[in-house]
Specification:
The complex is a heterodimer.
Chain A: E1 7-14, E2 21-29, H1 32-43, E3 51-56, H2 68-72
Antiparallel strand pairs in A: 1-2, 1-3
Chain B: H1 3-15, H2 28-47, H3 49-53, H4 62-87, H5 93-101, H6 118-139, H7 145-173, H8 177-196, H9 208-213, H10 221-239, E1 249-251, E2 256-258, H11 264-274, H12 278-291, H13 293-311
Antiparallel strand pairs in B: 1-2
Helix pairs in contact in B: 2-4, 4-7, 6-7, 6-8, 6-10, 7-8
Classes of the chains: A alpha+beta, B mainly alpha.
Chain lengths: 95, 312
């Protein structure tokens, strides 16, 4: 007999107000509220966070590891997107 | 890409100390090895709640009770981190729990020893969690990303476990002669079972070779055991207690202690299910699981109603 443990939810924690939400793991739960409460109990027992997001794992769309090369390739040859690409004359101060 | 190419990418990642993530290609045996190791690790955390839970109602002070409750709650949390890490390898939680409850899955042999006195609770925190930390610090650099990340989190929390255990033993060791005797008795009973926690000696450890090759483990059972003994002896000496091993002796040449091996026949026997508490632990887990069935059923029914309510 299958003994249902609920759906899988991904948990994101914000450490302090203003900081990004960072993925920290997942929990099983049967609905949103339970997912939030379980996430609180499992991942923030020591003030690790001030805010939580929970998202159904099935709702996450991920890039595929096999395609890493071609998928991120467009960024590789565009060093002019970085500030250090440009020469600024001495004497104009911090820029 | 064909399999050979996938394997090349996998090996290259290991060589670079990169992590393997759930969606990456991995050899079937790597996956199987991890499922076995991570699920057993999860089971150990969950069964590990039982010997300590046994003392929550009898903790000698409110402070001790709060600490023990927090520690047991942490162990439950550790089990959950590890179960989800194992699930990312493609096994369901149902399958894992079922394997534990039917006695098919193994968990750490240490939890099949009884906690007879309050000193045992201190000894578990100090020695058992101490040995677990030594193993888990190494596993923080394990090649499987979700396992490694779970270990980082667990190690942070285990440090509290070990320190509270040593503090508790300190109170006994510097207490009345009866209390000191209790501490010594706990040390006598837990010393060798703790040394067994690192697993069989390297010369007969069936799973070590692959684990090291795949960087799931980074050090051998014997290396970790030696480090544990080196580190723990001075903690024993500070307490004025004695390690229950006549052959324990500092070896200047290897800059470490020589010590007696645990009784490996006893170890095998406990693993096989014949330890003092194997049956009791399994029965307790089964009882808790079946008594929680109505909660799971109610939660599931409630969860199913939620979308209907929102639509209305």
């Amino acid at each position: 007999m299958s003994d249902n443990q609920g759906q899988l939810w991904e948990v994101f924690v914000q450490k302090k107000s203003g900081q990004p939400f960072v993925h920290c793991g997942n929990v099983h739960a049967f609905d949103k509220e339970m997912a939030l409460q379980n996430a609180r109990d499992v991942y923030t027992r020591r003030n690790e966070g001030m805010a939580l997001w929970v998202v159904l794992s099935t709702a996450i769309v991920a890039s595929s590891p096999e395609d890493i090369g071609s998928f991120f390739e467009p960024a590789n040859d565009k060093i002019f997107r970085h500030p250090t690409f440009y020469q600024i004359p001495d004497g104009v101060g911090h820029m | 890409m064909d399999t050979a190419k996938f394997e090349e990418v996998f090996e290259a990642k290991l060589a670079k100390n990169d992590f393997i993530e759930p969606k990456d290609w991995m050899p079937e045996n790597y996956r199987k090895h991890l499922i076995r190791q991570v699920s057993q690790h999860a089971h150990s955390e969950i069964v590990g709640m039982l010997p300590e839970g046994n003392w929550i109602t009898r903790a000698p002070s409110l402070r001790a009770k709060l600490v023990l409750l927090a520690k047991v709650q942490d162990e439950g949390g550790h089990g959950l981190y590890l179960y989800t890490a194992a699930e990312s390898l493609g096994i369901s939680r149902d399958e894992m729990l079922n394997a534990l409850l039917t006695g098919k899955a193994k968990y750490s042999s240490i939890f099949n020893y009884p906690t007879l006195t309050w000193a045992d609770i201190g000894a578990i925190g100090w020695l058992v969690d101490g040995a677990a930390i030594m193993n888990q610090v190494m596993l923080q650099r394990s090649s499987y990303g979700p396992y490694s990340r779970a270990m980082v989190r667990i190690c942070k929390e285990e440090s509290f476990h070990q320190r509270q255990g040593y503090e508790s033993i300190t109170h006994l060791a510097f207490g009345t002669p009866e209390q000191k005797a209790m501490a010594q008795d706990a040390l006598n009973r837990w010393w060798f079972p703790t040394l067994m926690m690192f697993g069989p000696p390297d010369r007969e450890s069936p799973n070590s070779e692959n684990a090291l090759k795949w960087r799931i483990k980074r050090e051998t059972n014997d290396q970790l055991r030696q480090r544990f003994v080196n580190q723990t002896v001075k903690q024993v000496e500070y307490l004025g207690l004695t390690v229950p091993d006549k052959h324990l002796k500092w070896n200047e040449a290897k800059q470490g202690y020589d010590f007696s091996e645990p009784d490996w026949d006893e170890f095998k026997n406990v693993i096989k299910g014949n330890g003092i508490c194997n049956k009791e632990r399994l029965a307790s887990r089964n009882k808790a699981h079946s008594e929680g069935a109505w909660v799971r059923a109610a939660a599931e029914a409630y969860g199913k109603k939620q979308p209907e309510k929102e639509a209305a």
